[in-house]
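Renewal narrative, Specific Aim 1. Our central claim is that a sequence can be written position by position from structural information alone. The example that follows is taken directly from our test logs and has not been curated for this report. It begins with the structure tokens describing the chain, in the order in which they were read.
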């Protein structure tokens, strides 16, 4: 079965979710392009969009329609070439509409898992729950005559575990898109010791067709991305807890968030990022990873407490941010949680105090939004961090300690053979988390002042 045949019948589990709909959009566009090839004129391409929510499925087609129009407008030159022999399509608008219709024709929204029984490939983007994934894989595999390949979007569950528990005999691979899949360039590719080589070959071809940047991770819980992020987040939580007696808990959360965003020149502070991913999601990923760690306890009592209080973070259906460590108004932080009371403190009431305690930013500071546009960033970052190294303010001390720990995490991932190289760690953080520099670098003195 060649590439086109393999993609002629595909199912996506969790298709209406945050990750699933992005995977659906990319795959539907790829399948539509394949269907327009002359050699595929007689083939029917089917993409089953499977989810449990009627409401979510109802809005899925409109999402694909709107996003496909944006995609089509960007590749109109290619589409004009594809449709050049169709005399009924003259202007760009007609060609774009025809292409959108072709993409939508491919998709079959349904709540029935049984639709996947005829598929050659199953993309899975359900909750990060190993038991649920195994249950779905076994159900589909036991009722299919196709010996389907399973592409799991898990960001933490080992592939060998899913393979063994679902008895797939190597017909599974980790294909971890980053959020949002339609925009993020990075895909973490994870094969177990049993993954069939033909699946790896197909996955690499599929990623190339989607113009994704692939980093291969070894098959260890959390892989590279969450292997770094969960430890980075846990360190930030512990730093805030340590500082809370001195500063107050809301002030400590805001201080660590400002250090990780402003002093360290990241797109988001660590608590903002935890909110974005979801407090419940972070807690669950840590619980998935923890049993595989011999000398670490990847767990936070604070996340447990917030989970019990139903302070979960994550996004609303319209993409707006839910309350977590922060409350948000129009995408901006408006107040900060006091975890001890469960109440929020207006940021305007504590921000000046926190800024005063942290001290000034180092000379040469450039915000992340500006520095990310600079191709040769080292010429700007190096003098900035040289100045940071010389400072002894609270903000500088916290930043230097955080940067040292972040680098240690990166090196640990290589030492544990999760990442194959330091470059792979840096590539994941640069492309998947949009950092301006990799965590493994020589910007900060390794020894504390």
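The sequence written for that structure reads:
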């Amino acid at each position: 079965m060649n590439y086109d045949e393999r993609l002629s019948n595909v199912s996506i589990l969790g298709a209406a979710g945050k990750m699933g709909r992005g995977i659906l959009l990319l795959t539907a566009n790829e399948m539509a392009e394949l269907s327009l090839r002359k050699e595929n004129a007689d083939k029917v391409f089917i993409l089953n969009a499977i989810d449990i929510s009627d409401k979510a499925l109802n809005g899925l087609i409109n999402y694909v329609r709107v996003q496909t129009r944006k995609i089509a407008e960007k590749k109109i030159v290619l589409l004009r070439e594809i449709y050049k022999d169709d005399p009924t399509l003259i202007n760009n608008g007609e060609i774009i509409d025809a292409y959108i219709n072709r993409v939508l024709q491919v998709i079959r929204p349904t709540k029935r898992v049984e639709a996947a029984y005829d598929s050659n490939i199953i993309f899975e983007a359900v909750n990060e729950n190993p038991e649920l994934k195994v249950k779905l894989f076994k159900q589909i595999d036991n009722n299919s005559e196709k010996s389907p390949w399973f592409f799991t979007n898990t960001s933490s569950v080992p592939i060998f575990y899913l393979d063994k528990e679902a008895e797939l005999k190597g017909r599974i691979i980790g294909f971890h898109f980053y959020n949002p899949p339609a925009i993020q360039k990075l895909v973490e590719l994870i094969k177990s010791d049993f993954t069939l080589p033909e699946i790896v070959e197909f996955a690499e071809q599929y990623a190339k067709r989607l113009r994704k940047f692939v980093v291969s991770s070894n098959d260890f819980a959390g892989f590279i991305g969450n292997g770094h992020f969960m430890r980075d987040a846990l360190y930030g939580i512990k730093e805030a807890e340590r500082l809370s007696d001195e500063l107050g808990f809301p002030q400590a959360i805001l201080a660590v968030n400002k250090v990780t965003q402003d002093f360290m020149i990241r797109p988001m502070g660590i608590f903002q990022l935890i909110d974005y991913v979801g407090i419940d999601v972070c807690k669950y990923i840590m619980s998935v990873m923890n049993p595989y760690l011999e000398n670490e306890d990847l767990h936070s009592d604070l996340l447990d407490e917030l989970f019990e209080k139903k302070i979960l973070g994550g996004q609303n259906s319209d993409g707006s941010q839910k309350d977590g460590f922060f409350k948000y108004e129009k995408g901006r932080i408006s107040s900060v949680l006091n975890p001890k009371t469960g109440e929020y403190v207006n940021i305007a009431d504590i921000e000046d105090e926190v800024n005063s305690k942290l001290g000034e930013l180092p000379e040469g500071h450039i915000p992340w939004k500006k520095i990310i546009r600079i191709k040769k960033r080292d010429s700007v970052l190096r003098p900035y961090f040289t100045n940071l190294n010389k400072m002894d303010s609270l903000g500088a001390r916290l930043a230097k300690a955080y940067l040292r720990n972040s680098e240690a995490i990166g090196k640990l991932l290589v030492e544990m053979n999760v990442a194959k190289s330091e470059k792979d760690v840096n590539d994941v953080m640069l492309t998947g988390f949009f950092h301006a520099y990799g965590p493994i670098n020589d910007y900060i003195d390794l020894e504390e002042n």
